[in-house]
Amino acid sequence: MHAQINDTIIEKVREEYSFERLIKNSITVNPASYSGERKYSSTIFNVLTEKSNTPNQLQQKGQGKNLWGAEVYSLQKLDDKTSVWGNASYTQGKNKQVVWNENSDYDLIYPYVAADSVGGDMKFENYSFSGGYSRKINTYTLGITGSYQATLSYRDADPRPKNTAAHFSLAMGADKLILEKFRVGAYVNAEKYTQKHYLSFVSNQGYPMIYNMSGLGNYNELLSGKLRQAYYEGWSYGGGLQIFEAGNRNWYVNIGMKKFNLDKLLTEYADLNASKINEQQLTFSAGKFFDSEKTVWGISTEGSSTERKGTENLFLNENSRNYIQIGSVEKYNHKINTIIFKGLVQIGNKKAKSSLLPFFGWVQEKEKYNSPVSKIELSKLMYGADYQWLKTFENQQILSVTAGLSATTVYQKDALFNNSGKPSIHTMLQENYAFQSSDFWQVKLDIHFHFNFPVVKNAFVGGKMIYSNFNNGCNTLLAFSIGSIF
Amino acid sequence: MLKHVLRTLFVLCAAFAITACSSDSNEAPEAKTSLKLELKAVPENIQVKEYKNLTISFKELNSGFTITQELKNKNILQVALPSGTYNITAEGSIVCADNSASVEAKVAGVQNGIVINGNETSKTLDLSLKSGNSSDLILEEVFFTGTKTPQGAMYFGDQYFKITNNTDKTLYADGMLLIQSSFMTNEKQDYSPNIMGTALSAGAIIRIPGNGTMYPVKAGESIIIAEDAINHKDFNPSSINLSSANFQIFKEDSDDIDNPAVPKMVNVFEKMVIHTQGYYAYALARMPQGMTNEALVAQNSYTYTYNLTINGDVYPMDETAVKIPNEWITDAVNLSVQDSFQWLVTSPSLDMGWTSVATFDGDKSRFGKAVRRKVTGKTMDGKNILKDTNNSTTDFEHGVKPSLFN
Q1: Cβ separation of A330 and B8 shorter than 8 Å?
Q2: Containing H/E element for B323?
Q3: N or C, which end of chain B has less CB nearby within 10 Å?
């Protein structure tokens, strides 16, 4: 009995690190298909700390992070038919030297951020909770999942932004077993996002110009300089279809789409609508895996096509207390298409397993602002491979070593910026573009060791290092975690 | 089965590639409005024989987009502009009939916050005759912000106007009016009647005393009109000594500080209170020979009305001011706050622009800073030649150290 429990722990750990499981992860976007991702019920608790230096990054996202956090994840198969899962995490830290962005969640709300050239370190705290439930009824599986995430970001020195963001999502889905061979599934999801932005200054010695940015360094002159508050409110709706082999998910095809709308409202002026984002995303993934007794091999592909459109409203400031909307114009457009192909070869036995994951991908990005004409066009190829060695020792000790090497080549690039604006904005655009259009190579090493202490059972320690070399320097990341899996 | 999956994969990739490419075509072109702009010389009684040449500049206030157009021998401009809110300025020359002879005159027009949207629209821009280069005294410097004490408290009373003779001959300051506008540059209302084409609406007027020859100002020299002509350093070490100012502003019945050694400005209309943020326009003017202070107020007082809207409620307002005909005015400067500027409160023929110290309302970095006219060169005897093109935006340096602080 004791040996059985230990065997199960080993299987849970092996499942946790399985490349095969991680690739097939895209099926779990449907809550009905979530619990089939793992064979075993498992609970993972870990405390982590991370330090990164990213001088090669969009300046709006900062030059690195220092953070620590704690996370607990659990999937419990209550019986053959019912599963529940949940996740809770807390992280806090600081985002170093963020300039030209005083908001949080840049990737969600860009390009409509409040910005200045001063910026500085931005502290943050994130809380997130999620949970889900699925149940098999005859040949059907039904699932539902929900999540809530709250983010607070702020700075203690001028300029002092305070951003409170909340993210709530709900998804429902079903799949059906057909001919005892494969499952066909469908899901829908909806998300609500809000961010409350407030900026203040304590110093009497004046303040920098606050720009109401509208994409590629352009900004609304009428709204710049004075605004201190904004409220972002957005909804996203999506859904998808999937089909996969019922037993081990040895083949799968997934397609999905998502629409996201976000309004920026100026709360100082009776919730005046300053701008809108309208984004549409199509995703697909597919894979096929072959399992012989000693070898597993497979191929998979994932792709996405995203188009973000930005519409600005135009104003007349009749007097200093009142803005009147006189029109609106769609000026911003950002398209990103990606496709990546992955292979998998896995050999070995229960004592030692080696996995190789070569990959090859293509990214095309077109970011454009209509008037004055500004644009960035990039086409990239990326290729590389990850290798994992998973070794089981005596006494239930397990070592996972993952090493990766990859390169990204920008084979086509073009940019045009509006030169008539502020010199400091122009410098920011040039520096961002130098990063975006730079070739880079990356090495990474991830080591996790699982062991048993007399008191703490099933503990693990882990460390991760990533080094990325760009034309103008390098980015580094170091992370360390301890935890337990049971 | 593998064959089947690979085929599915291929079809999906192809579908994805088509979606990725086809999304290129649906970009919305920017909406443009066809504008017909008529430029018209005012007042109506000017007989224009020819609109010789006009340069019209447009600035869209949201995007900062600017465009300049030239017109020769006509006064109607047809132009396609991106929709938006525009500031429009025009400058140029016209030929007008003057007692059977034709004279060429310079004209200028400014209109701020003009909404141009829809497919097509028509607007009219009034052009006023521009006064020539001033042959009289001009405002060289206005120090209106006050100072801050070493303890960080606001200190007032040390504000001053520096009035300079930018000509090459001696002028007399006697009788010169110093006028504060009744309208504020940060508060645009639909004031009725609109007299701006012909006169400045004055909210406060003070006058330099004298009989005509008592206060000569030599070429290139200046006089100082102080709010309080005392040594302010006695009260605030960060301030200045204004006890040797040429004139002081003295508000009767107000417990004002009086330095008996310094002549007082004559109060003509209302009390002049210098706003420390600078929301008014200031002007220098000469009354016609023989006109008294009392006659000026009696003959030129008028009541203007406007609707004040607060939180959607409309309050009808009326106030009294004094009309100062534009041709009396020798110099004018519009002051404002960068973030709050709404409109020019003088005719563009007097001042086509505005200058400022504060960046935003309540900007505490404004203290101890002034606006001062740019120096374009030196005379033979080493006096400054000041820039005076009747456009305060380009004529003045803003937020500079006041000259008396040196």
Answers
A1: no
A2: strand B313-325
A3: C
CB environment A208-237: b (16+ within 10 A), e (fewer): bbbbbbbbbbbbbbbbbbbbbebebbbebe
The third-level CATH classification (topology) of the domain covering B32-129 is: Immunoglobulin-like (2.60.40)
Please, where are the H alpha helices in A233-341?
Answer: none
- Measured between CA atoms, how close is B73 to chain A, in angstroms? 32
Beta B147-148 vs B355-356: how paired, if at all?
unpaired
Element at A188 (helix H, strand E): strand A182-200
Question: A448 pairs with which residues across the strands?
Answer: A400, A462
State the Cα–Cα distance between residues B262 and B273, nearest whole angstrom.
19
Range B111-131 burial, b when 16+ CB lie within 10 A, else e = bbbbbbbeeebebebbbbbbb
B72 near A CB under 8 A? no
Torsion, Cα of B279, B283, B288, B293 (10° steps): 50
Six-digit token pair at A305? Answer: 């096509």
Hey, are the CB atoms on A282 and B16 less than 8 Å from each other? Answer: yes
Whether residues A286 and B9 touch (CB distance < 8 A) is answered with yes
Using a CB-CB distance cutoff of 8 angstroms, which residues of chain A are in contact with residue B152? 204
Pairwise CA distance, residues B128 & B313, whole Å: 35
> B34 CA to chain A: closest CA distance, Å?
15
Closest-CA residue of chain B to A205: B365
Nearest CA in chain B to A363: B20
- Residue B207 and residue B268 in contact, taking contact as beta carbons nearer than 8 Å: yes
* Whether A253 and B65 lie within 8 Å, measured CB to CB: no
Q: How far apart are CA B121 and CA B111, in angstroms?
A: 16
Residues of B in contact with A335 (CB under 8 A): 23-24
In this structure, what token pair is assigned to residue A404?
Answer: 């990766």
Run of H or E including A84: strand A82-98
Compare CB distances from A282 to B19, B85, B361 and report the shortest one's residue: B19
A319–B16 C-beta distance less than 8 A: no
Among the partner residues A251, A307, A370, nearest to B5 by beta-carbon distance: A251
CB B172 within 8 A of CB B151: no
> Per-domain residue ranges for chain B?
32-129, 138-405
Quote ipTM for the complex.
0.81
Ordered by start, the domain boundaries in chain A are: 2-485
Return per-residue pLDDT of chain A as tens, 486 residues. Answer: 444 556 678 888 888 888 888 888 888 999 999 888 888 888 999 999 999 999 999 999 999 999 999 999 999 999 889 999 999 999 999 999 999 999 999 999 999 999 988 889 999 999 999 999 999 998 999 999 999 999 999 999 888 999 999 999 999 999 999 988 899 999 999 999 999 999 988 876 567 788 999 999 999 988 887 668 999 999 999 999 999 988 888 899 999 999 999 999 998 888 889 999 999 999 999 999 998 878 989 999 999 999 999 999 999 887 656 788 999 999 999 999 999 999 999 998 888 899 999 999 999 999 999 888 999 999 999 999 999 999 988 877 899 999 999 999 999 999 999 877 788 899 999 999 999 999 999 999 999 998 887 777 788 999 999 999 999 899 999 999 999 988
CB pair distance less than 8 Å for A221 and B23: no
Verify whether the Cβ–Cβ distance A327 to B6 is below 8 Å.
no
> For chain B, first and last CA: distance in Å?
91
| Distance (Å, whole) CA A478 – CA B382 | 67
**A206: nearest CA partner in chain B:** B365
